Amino acid sequence: MSEQNNIQKLTTASGKPYYEHENSLTAGPRGPILLEDFILHEKLAHFNRERIPERVVHAKGTGAYGKFTVTHDITKYTKAKVFSEIGKQTDVFLRFSTVGGEKGSADSERDPRGFALKFYTEDGNWDIVGNNTPVFFIKDPKKFPDFIHTQKRDPRTNTKSATMMWDFWSLNPESLHQVMILMSDRGTPVSYRHMHGFGSHTFAFINKDNERHFVKFHFKTQQGIKNFSDAEAGQMKGVDADQAQRDLVEAIDRGDFPKWTLKVQIMTEAEAATYKWNPFDVTKVWSQKDFPLIEVGELELNHIPDNYFAHVEQAAFAPAHLVDGIGFSPDKMLQGRILGYTDAQRYRLGANYEQIPVNRCPFAVNNYQRDGAMRMDGNGGSNPNYFPNSFDNIRADEAYKEPAQNLGNVVADWYDRNAPGEDDHYTQPGDLYRLMTTDEKAATVSNIIGAMSGIAGPKRDEIINRQLCHFFRADIGLGMAIAQGLGVNISAHAGSMQPAATM
Fold first, then answer.
1. Which CATH number is associated with domain 1-50?
2. Which fold has domain 61-137+180-355?
3. Is 308 annotated as contributing to ligand binding?
4. Which of 43, 185, 232, 494 can bridge 228 by disulfide, Cβ–Cβ 3.0-4.6 Å?
């Protein structure tokens, strides 16, 4: 095939081929530009919108794809398919970051490092959104905006402020554990490859018998820990502000794939109830003497994305992204992040952010979410956008129901809103009908018949009969009048005519 045949035509975003990419349409060679030049409009308008809002925290970062391989059996603790058998491999994407700096800040700043990992499992995407430290500065999500404000810029001077930081820390002694880590050389890692990663929060494992254990995740670097001294970190800011980004890219490009060993700590519910520390306090660790590390598997990064923005910048992580066999705990900071992170991603990337390739589950996704900016699939086609319905075959699988949580004086569960004692939906509607005058009854019946006459399609009779059963249970006379008006054989509903008190 000739080189000419391989040439691709330059086109607009809508696919129209065009030629004048470098010269604007003008009235004469030196005249003003004409409004007609829509190519100019498209180029400038898209350019003005190339920057999406940067992350409020963790704005500066890098990322890579890789794989996770199970090396040890932990199926007695969790039914999560990602851990189902030794040797099982799962594709992953990992984003590293600093926390407080903007996108143009230096990689060697004294700061915690983000360690956000996405597993693409057959039960959906699972995110561990952690740091390179096992604890955090605060333990209640209401403090999070205030804390982050102290790590950003002073409202008056627009500079970083030691006063703001230490004022907040001095007023919140719970921060001391993390402050001690931050102020050690662990606060300035040499590279993302040479640091550990932690889930930080307490999560839950649920096994095939619906038994719950609490768990903490530890990713131990196989490259060894390397940190800058304070002087070295300061010098590196001036030498190469993107040093950690560059290090990861160059290491993977030369085949030096970084690896981490995943280990977990396991705590029973009974142990959690009596442990000397609150096991759900993210400012504290679990003693490894009390709860030894259990090896699980190996994480390897082996592929740098071909486009930073498409993959790393648009990557969206959230602690809300769990899979069957992994659950939450009463960790207050974790509970707050369940809302905060998904909300941040919807603001930054749009309601359909999980359809962006880096965030998309590679396996089946079935739901009733529709519309919104940048919808990237068929938007559900002609399928129903509500549940339950009489038309599709999407069903909630009871095998994925999670066990209740005993929280001491109360049990947290997904309680049936129509459980016994909450399931009389007919007495009061029937009483209302019986309170109506003869004319009011006639008008109501007529209105219902008129509205239900609009039901159409192959499920028409099924829907009408189901609704008639409700009317019969409320009042037999009401059901009979509506059935007659719709031309339905009343004898077919004889078994549904019992009054509400006998249901």
1. 4.10.91.20
2. Catalase HpII,  Chain A, domain 1 (2.40.180)
3. no
4. 232
